[in-house]
Amino acid sequence: MRPTTDSANERMRRRLSSRLIAGIALGLLLGVVAGVIVGSIVSAPGRLGFWIALVGCAVFATFVGALLAGYSSLESPDPGEEPSDTRSPLIDRPELTREEHDADRRP
Predict the structure, then answer these.
(1) Alpha-carbon span 76 to 51, nearest angstrom
(2) Any idea what DSSP says for residue 88?
(3) E strands within the chain?
(4) Measured between alpha carbons, how far is 21 from 33 in angstroms, rounded to an integer?
């Protein structure tokens, strides 16, 4: 039995919100760690270059984590349930299909 639209939307909202929160948190954590490493290489800890590297890495990794979390929450529709602009895409458009003949095959 196919879930109703409301339950499908609710399931998508729950999955997106939980993964988005996890992606942002993990991205921020990894960004801060990478920022400390890069900042320590670029400049001495406590100097302006260190803080710029730390904030830059943290912001970048947070956005990347949110993007990847958003993508991971998407799911493919069930087979046969894909969105289409016609009821029967291959039957309603005969120019997209053709009969195969032995003469069509090339060695």
Answers:
(1) 42
(2) S
(3) none
(4) 18
Write out pLDDT tens, residues 27-59.
999 999 999 999 999 888 889 999 999 999 999
Contact 55, 21 (CB under 8 A): no
Ordered DSSP codes for 20-79 = HHHHHHHHHHHHHHHHHHHHHHHS-TTSHHHHHHHHHHHHHHHHHHHHHHHHHT--PPPT
- Rounded-to-integer distance, Cα 50 and Cα 37, Å: 9
Using the structure block, give the residue that is written with the tokens 């800890």.
Answer: 45
Identify the residue whose tokens are 């984590």: 65
Specify the pTM.
0.63
Q: Distance between CA 17 and CA 58 in Å, rounded? A: 21
